[in-house]
Amino acid sequence: MNDVLTSLLTLSGALLVLAAAIGVLRLPDVLCRAHAVAKALTLGIFLMLLGLWVDQGQKQAALKIFLAIFFQVVTIPIGSHLIALLAFEKNIPRWRHRPIEDHRRAGGSNAVPHPGGGTPSSDESDRPAH
Amino acid sequence: MKSFALNLLIAVIWLLLAPEPSAGAFALGCLLGFALLGVFRPVLGSGDYIRRVFALGRFLLVFTWEFLAANVNVVWTVLFRARTSLNPNFVTYDVAGLRPFEILLLSHCISLTPGSTTVQVTDDFQTLVLHTLDVGDPAAVRARLDRVLKRGILSFTR
Q1: Taking CB atoms and an 8 Å limit, are A100 and B92 in contact across chains?
Q2: Who among B68, B86, B117 is closest to A84 (CB)?
Q3: In chain B, what residues touch A38 (CB-CB under 8 Å)?
Q4: Between the CA of residue B155 and those of B54, B59, B108, B142, what are the distances in Å?
Q5: Sign of the torsion angle spanned by Cα atoms B133, A108, B127, B149
Q6: Out of A58, A88, A101, whose CB is closest to B119?
Q7: How far apart are CA A45 and CA B4, in angstroms?
Q8: Looking at beta carbons, which residues of chain B come within 8 Å of A35?
Q9: Is residue A9 a contact partner of residue A50, using CB atoms and an 8 Å limit?
Q10: Contact A86/B at CB under 8 A
């Protein structure tokens, strides 16, 4: 029973990590790739470590694996957030470049100026927000 | 806070009474302490703590469901969707009035729920910039985050 559960958890975790890798290859730009990494990698590693915990049993693994899971789940989304932040600030070319959907633009002022040089690209400033 | 300390204290006492200390005994102690705090709610003034713990539990359930949905969503997007069908964009989200800790929690959860990652918190802590894979209607994205995450987080932090 434990063996089946272990292999099930480890395999699905490995498949999710594979999905994250394929996502990094297939998705069009940095920001979309950060999506795949943030979600699929987090759950993938979570499931693999959980499988390891089931395999090891509570005596040996005890809280160590939970600590590992905790740090993975906390840090992977932050890593993807930092990648996305860098792409945003450097104004890296993105798929279907369109103006930011700003909820305050209706009020008149665009309060979130796009960083990365004082002049935003032409389609950033000329086109109205949808 | 006082109730939480009391709960931990009861758990530690239970751990000391157990034949051999283990994680299971500690969890049982926590549960017993929680039950005691629940029963003696009017005397100890722990009603708010009980409410927060239940709110946290409910939020964790909702969040786990969202997290699983996000993974199904990502796998489907990665494997079966052509890149021309993607419609990603930045969306801003209003977080005015939230404390920094709540913004931290919210942005972390946003990164793990379907279709959105946190990109930036503006310097004045008023606005989150998100990146979403499919912006059909930005108002719908914001309404979903309001309904699913913001309300859930505020229900146990306040």
Answers
A1: yes
A2: B117
A3: 111-112, 117
A4: 10, 8, 17, 18
A5: negative
A6: A88
A7: 31
A8: 74, 77, 115, 117, 131, 133
A9: yes
A10: no
How far is residue B70's CA from residue B50's CA, in Å, rounded to a whole number? 30
Q: Report yes or no on A48 lying in a domain.
A: yes
CA-nearest of A113, A117, A111 to A90 is A117
Element spanning B157, H or E: helix B151-157
Give A114's pLDDT tier (boundaries 50, 70, 90): low
Quick check: is A116 in a domain?
A: no
Whether A115 maps to a domain, the answer reads no
In whole angstroms, give the CA distance from residue B98 to residue B113.
Answer: 20
Alpha-helical regions (H) of chain A: 2-26, 30-36, 42-61, 64-89, 122-125
| pLDDT score of A28 | 83
Q: Please state the domain count of chain A.
A: 1
Sort out which chain A residues have CB atoms less than 8 A from B138's CB and list them: 101, 103
Name the one residue in this structure whose structure tokens are 């890593």: A79
Does the pLDDT at position A128 exceed 50? no
Give pTM, 2 decimals. Answer: 0.79
- pLDDT above 70 for A38: yes
CB A94 within 8 A of CB B131: no
Q: Which amino acid is at B19?
A: P
Residue written as tokens 């894979």?
B133
Coil, helix or strand at residue A121:
coil
* Structural domain contains residue A40: yes
At residue B82 the predicted structure's pLDDT band, cuts being 50, 70 and 90, is confident
Q: pLDDT at residue B125 above 90?
A: no
Here the ipTM equals: 0.79
Q: How confident is the model at residue A62 (pLDDT cuts 50, 70, 90)?
A: low
Q: Do B77 and A27 touch (CB under 8 A)?
A: yes
Question: Looking at beta carbons, which residues of chain A come within 8 Å of B111?
Answer: 38, 77-78, 80-81
